[in-house]
Design brief:
The structure is a homodimer of 314-residue chains. By secondary structure, the first copy, chain A, is α+β, with helices and mostly antiparallel strands. Helices cover 27% and strands 21% of the residues of chain A. The model of chain A is unreliable at 12-19 (pLDDT under 50).
Chain lengths: 314, 314
């Protein structure tokens, strides 16, 4: 429950996109006093290029104990975890799709540093990076993202892990590695690739124009990505979002990093990856009602459109 | 994959609600030739009051075999099932929230009749009724709904059933019955009730203003609802949607009936119920990224607002 996040919910309906707030932008240089508790900054010359602070209305709070307890027949616990807010850039206008390579590398370095730092808190099991762009429910235009650490395994990760473990138990291979091999072999859903990473629209994906970016070589822990791999990853992330923008007229989108279990478990089974979905306003009722996803754009068609949208990177 | 449903996806973005089509309304009397294959009708005097046809762009197709097979390392099957389209009324303008009691009973009778009829096809395991109202992704203003039968247990039902079975195994009681007792005892999340049914905002519900309507007495199979129970159920359904409309300025919403396993399994464990969620444009990125739901409106607050919106029914 996050009541402090719902104050203006009814006035913020999807059919009435929020006008940008009238106050000063909390992510712009000069307004740092609006988020005084700095967690980390990455310099860009004499100024900051990326800046991390606690979220002021956190979904998960860093202090305290989960205090699992009963409430009648129900179970409750406190929302313990980390919820950090990242100013992705000091530039109020520029989106990820237009980030220079050097700046995207700087941001990825920060996500790696936050992953490593949060691993030091033994309560936490998983780290996510979540980026929302342009949706009516984003309050700020200035590019920002969330770093979230959880002391439990959230449901979607649990499903991913359960499938990966079962597959590994049967075949002693990483299911993501096998999937990547199959995608590269079939070649009908590849959007872009370089020596280290591949961008693809997964087989039978749940959402139209859903893309994944994953290391071609097995890697379970984003926190251990090498310096040398940051540039090729930055290239494909910027490329994927530029393709979305060009192919689908700058849609709102969400991006998530599933960074791998922090405690090093499932090292053979898991494979870190980024997932990207545009928000295209397709029917959500069926998914909510039944859990059946209906994707109106086969990933093979999506890949063709995304490939055609712009030249290959590099 | 449903490619025929995605033709105009990019032009139908949530930020540009679809203007109503220029063609004749396929649900209005006089236009029956647009959906010639009639499955069932309920009369209203000399005319029809409710009319059921196959969906022209079905998510699931009635003919054929699932033909489960491999595609490289992946598994595929044909989308077999029933997907029926219901004209909820012959009146182009009237919404469920304004249905007269007699007409809501007529519609519920039709859902019961379709459930019983689809049970005759031994391939089918579950029936759902899905109703979307007013969202940008609804192509038609005229009130309509979907009756869907699946030859498999969709994921959300599987989760509901798995929890209910585990609870029953431990306590030999229906978890929904216990939940209803607890909700009625706590009384802080009750929106409306009568002798047969109760409307409530469930403890720790996933969505803001989510409501459930369930029979107070254990009942696993909507197909066996008695004639006498139709009126009190109709009253609470209309009442709940009128409250949403009044409390939240006529939001878009979805309604689903989880009708219970068609083959009579889980008779002691399952409990049929309706679920209602308004679409308020709150943040979806976290839910998609992690499976963590963050509800900005505690159900106790939602219940208070919904109760205050209008007098109690009856």
């Amino acid at each position: 429950m996050a009541p402090e996040r719902g104050l203006d919910l009814v006035s913020r309906r999807a059919d009435s996109p929020l006008p940008e707030g009238s106050g000063p932008c909390p992510f712009c240089p000069g307004n740092e006093h609006l988020n005084p508790e700095e967690i980390a900054v990455a310099p860009d010359g004499d100024a900051w290029g990326v800046r991390v602070t606690p979220d002021k209305r956190p979904l998960l709070r860093i202090e305290g104990d989960p205090e699992r307890r009963a409430a009648g027949m129900f179970d409750v616990m406190n929302s313990i975890g980390a919820h950090e807010l990242v100013a992705d850039t000091s530039d109020h206008e520029v989106a990820w799709a237009d980030f220079p390579r050097a700046h995207m590398i700087r941001l990825l370095e920060m996500y790696r540093a936050r992953t490593v730092d949060l691993r030091g808190d033994r309560r936490f099991r998983h780290v996510f990076v979540l980026k929302n762009h342009g949706a009516a429910w984003s309050r700020y235009v200035h590019a920002h993202s969330h770093v979230i650490a959880t002391p439990f395994t959230p449901k979607r990760l649990e499903e991913e892990l359960a499938g990966a473990r079962e597959y590994h138990r049967m075949r002693e291979r990483c299911v993501f590695c096998d999937q990547l091999s199959e995608e590269i072999r079939a070649a009908t859903r590849i959007v872009a690739r370089n020596d280290e990473f591949v961008t693809f629209t997964p087989f039978a994906s749940e959402y139209p124009y859903e893309m994944w970016i994953a290391p071609v070589k097995h890697a379970a822990d984003f926190g251990t990505i090498t310096d040398a791999a940051l540039a090729p990853l930055a290239d494909l992330l910027v490329d994927a979002l530029a393709r979305l923008r060009d192919a689908l007229r700058n849609p709102p989108y969400s991006v998530v990093l599933h960074a791998g279990p922090l405690d090093g478990s499932d090292r053979a089974e898991f494979h870190w990856h980024w997932e990207i979905v545009p928000h295209l306003g397709h029917e959500l009722g069926m998914e909510w009602a039944t859990g059946i996803f209906s994707n109106p754009v086969p990933p093979e068609d999506a890949a063709r459109l995304l490939v055609a949208a712009r030249p290959m990177p590099g």
